[in-house]
Structure formats: C-alpha cells, structure tokens
C-alpha cells in the first residue's frame, strides 16, 4: 500500500509561472499557508532546493539535477513528475522497464487524493511499446479505475518522454493505448498536437444502450435524468462520452450556471451507459467557438478533458452546431480541435507543463 509518509518535491528548472493550480497541490502536501508557499515557490526556481514534507520546511540545498532525479531507482520509492494539461493534472511514472504499472489501482487512488496524497486527476505510466509502437501509455483515474485513453494525459506523456530521453525541439512518438494507436507531436512552441484517431459513433461500441439512428449512432437522443429530459449525443474517443447542449427546459446551456457536482454523477452512473460515461455540458458561442464543463468518469469535475473536447466537436458537427475546426474553452483554458474530413481523424492541440518532481515511499 502506498503511504505518504515521505514525500519530497523539486520544482522543474523551467519553473512555471506561479498560479494557484501550482500552489494548491504543494499546499496540500506541505500543509503550509498559501502565501508562505508563494514565496517559497519563487525561491524554488533554483532546482537545488528541496521541500521536505516531514520537516515542513525548505531543506538544505541539495545537488539534484533533473536528469539524475529521473534516473533514480531506489527500491521502496516511487519517483514521479507531476504534470498538467490545462489544470487536468497527472502523476507521471517512468515504467519503461516494466510491462505492468509500478503501483496498484488502490495505491494510485491514494496518491491522487488531494488531502492525504500528492493530489491529481490520475496516474500515468510510460511503458515499453507493443506492436512496433515507441511506447505504451496506461492510466489510472483518481478513483483507481483504468480508462482506455486520456487526451490531456497523452500531451503530458509526450513531454515526459522527451524529458526522460533528453530530446529537444520537434518530436513525435507512436503510443499504444487502450484506444489504439495515438500519435502526439511536440511542436516548436512546446505545445503538443495529437492525432487522436477516429471517433467511434456506433452505439454498441461507445457503449450506450440509448436507441441509435439508422447509422447506428446516438445523435440528439432523449436521456431522462431524474425527470429532466436532456438531448444527448454519444461519442467514443476510445473512452465513452455523452455530450449535451441542452435539455427540454433550456435548449441552450449557460454552463457556468450548472450544478455539476449534483448532476454529473447521475450521468456517469446512468443505466444507459454500461461502462459509465464522461459527460460534457456545452455552450455554443459560434460555429468555431465552444465552451464546455466536464464531469469525468472516475475523476469527477476536472479543469479540462482532452478526449472530451474532441468528442464535443464531433457531436457539435453531427448536430449541425459547429464546423470541424473549433476552439473549445475549458475551465483550465482553451484547446484547438479539428475533425478532419480527409482522414476522419480528430486532432487536438494544447499545452502540457511540468509542475514538480517528487518521491513517495510505497
Ligand atoms: N481527462 C482525460 C480523460 C481521462 C479518462 C476519463 N476519466 C475516463 O474514465 O474515460 C482527458 O483529457 O481525455
């Protein structure tokens, strides 16, 4: 079982500009007031500094370079790098020498706890490739369940691999996932463009039990959630998504007004979704500009969902609400999504940033 008895943190050399999304996880581990952390974090731009959770103090400067940190392999410790893609945050673990994740789903759930652990929406493992691919990505949600794919996660994964392999500039990898082959490409500006493959629309494969149209897809179907009839479209990007732009009472949503914590779980656990579902609530600003909030399967409300943003654009096109190329605003920031007519693939472009380095006793 994972214990958080010993956690150490090191910020990346290229320390990101401080924001609460950086400070909050640090606060949850170190239990220090946010303001004192702010000044500590600034001083931690020097990578030789180390925060020790046991002493609750900035420790003696220690010579740890990024490379030597990522190379560490002491038994009994799990070394990780915390990344985020628009605030959707992950604990990245180097498992390139292993065909199984280095920790159990139960341990992952403990590490993801924002009060008693490191705090994250999931744990991602970089593993050896299969079937000729460069790498395999596996992920546990914060509840310990294992999804097929994660869009923000695969952007973080690409940046993590580049760091592990000491690669610079434009880089592209082939990644085996539960959703098949995914191809992230790190661009010159540091953003990551990902070929997310083809959306799956066949109801049985999403999967959903909602009645399908003649193309076997579920588009603008009625879904009764506690007596409210929602209009939903179902899309899988390897993982299942239920997308709604409104209900019978309110055809066009104002997503900021939704009580996500109340309605999200009812969609997630709905009997029409045998594998549970991620749900996106969408507001349309124009044919090229959408805004969404997400309730994720196995993780709850998150600041962003990459597969969700892709599924939203596919659903918007199918419902005739938007064009194939859109900016999707999420609580953590915007993603650029394109569903290309030529190859039927969905492409997602967005940022991925390292937050801090750490070790935890397992
Ligand atoms: N946040 C992710 C999706 C992670 C998996 C999801 N919770 C599921 O269970 O399908 C993304 O960016 O795509």
From TrEMBL:
A Gene Ontology biological process term: lysine biosynthetic process via diaminopimelate
Pfam families named among the record's database cross-references: DAP_epimerase
EC number annotated for this UniProt entry: 5.1.1.7
Pathway it works in: Amino-acid biosynthesis; L-lysine biosynthesis via DAP pathway; DL-2,6-diaminopimelate from LL-2,6-diaminopimelate: step 1/1
GO cellular component, one term: cytosol
An annotated Gene Ontology molecular function: diaminopimelate epimerase activity
Catalytic activity field: (2S,6S)-2,6-diaminopimelate = meso-2,6-diaminopimelate
Subcellular localization(s) per the UniProt record: Plastid, Chloroplast
HAMAP family, A to Z: DAP_epimerase
Protein name as it appears in the record: diaminopimelate epimerase
């Amino acid at each position: 079982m994972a214990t958080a008895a010993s956690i150490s943190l090191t910020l990346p050399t290229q320390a990101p500009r401080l924001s609460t999304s950086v400070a909050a996880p640090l606060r949850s581990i170190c239990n220090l007031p946010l303001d004192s952390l702010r000044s500590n974090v600034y001083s931690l731009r020097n990578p030789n500094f180390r925060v020790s959770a046991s002493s609750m103090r900035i420790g003696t400067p220690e010579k740890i370079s990024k490379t030597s940190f990522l190379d560490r392999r002491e038994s009994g410790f799990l070394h990780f790098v915390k990344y985020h893609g628009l605030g959707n945050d992950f604990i990245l673990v180097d498992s390139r020498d292993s065909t199984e994740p280095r920790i159990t789903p139960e341990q992952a759930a403990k590490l993801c706890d924002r009060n008693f652990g490191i705090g994250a929406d999931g744990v991602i493992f970089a593993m050896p490739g299969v079937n000729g691919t460069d790498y395999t990505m596996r992920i546990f949600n914060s509840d310990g369940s294992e999804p097929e794919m994660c869009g923000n996660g695969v952007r973080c994964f690409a940046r993590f691999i580049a760091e592990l392999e000491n690669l610079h500039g434009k880089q592209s990898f082939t990644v085996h996932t539960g959703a098949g082959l995914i191809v992230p490409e790190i661009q010159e500006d540091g953003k990551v463009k990902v070929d997310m493959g083809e959306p799956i629309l066949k109801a049985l494969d999403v999967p959903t039990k909602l009645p399908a149209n003649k193309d076997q897809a579920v588009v603008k179907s009625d879904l009764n959630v506690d007596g409210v009839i929602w209009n939903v479209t179902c899309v899988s990007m390897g993982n299942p998504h239920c997308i709604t732009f409104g209900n019978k009472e309110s055809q066009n949503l104002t997503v900021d007004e939704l009580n996500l914590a109340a309605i999200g779980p009812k969609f997630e656990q709905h009997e029409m979704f045998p594998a549970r579902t991620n749900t996106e609530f969408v507001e349309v600003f124009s044919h090229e500009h959408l805004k969404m909030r997400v309730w994720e399967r196995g993780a709850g409300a998150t600041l962003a969902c990459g597969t969700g943003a892709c599924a939203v654009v596919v659903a918007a096109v199918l419902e005739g609400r938007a064009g194939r190329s859109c900016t999707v605003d999420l609580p953590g920031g915007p993603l650029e999504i394109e569903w290309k007519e030529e190859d039927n693939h969905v492409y997602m472009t967005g940022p991925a940033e390292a937050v801090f380095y750490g070790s935890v006793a397992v």
